[in-house]
Design brief:
With about 220 residues, the chain is mostly beta strands. About 5% of the residues lie in helices and about 65% in strands. The protein has helices spanning about 10-15, 195-200; strands at about 25-35, 40-55, 55-65, 75-90, 90-105, 110-120, 125-130, 145-155, 160-170, 170-185, 185-195, 205-215.
Amino acid sequence: MKVFAKTTVAVLLATSCSLAQADVSANLGYMSEYHFRGILQKVSSVSGGIDYESGGFYVGTWAADVGDNYYESGSGLEIDGYFGYGTEVGDVALSIGYTGYFYTGDFDDTYQEINLGAGFGPLSLDVAIGTWDNDFDPLTDGDQDDYTFVSLTFEHEGFYGTLGTFSQDADGDYLELGYGTTISEIDVGLSLIFANDDLIGEADESLVFTIGKSFDL
């Protein structure tokens, strides 16, 4: 997942377009703070990925620098793999796919989820139904946690706002407000993220700068 494709609207636009020919692209990026769905992953993170799209089908992988674990600095990677299909029915964009989140070191356990998306005009809805291996907690004996994530995004001329919420075994909400644009073929973005205490243990506000570049292969 690219830096900017981590937001609902960018993912939906990328996966719902129907291409007449196959398209292979790569991307590199930097984030002053890597947040995903309102949760801080790492301060100062680099990322990169590769994507293949053809006729509405897509498959790709994306990796980002994360810490060795939650409590200590160090080297570690988040490695995502995803595939799916996007199409348009009239003025409505629809998508369905799978994403797996895997980690080196002891940063986190594996997440796997089904992703559903719908968009109409400036509005897009994203639903992720997933499981988390949760090997961190010895009291669970490795039992998986189930979660559902729902977000609603409004986007207009580069400005966007996303409201996201977790349910089932996960809990919490966040609001992200931001702007993204392209300057001399370089993607830049600025966002303000508000996470409540149910999501990360304490209320938090973060200002995040991102920069990235995509390449056709």
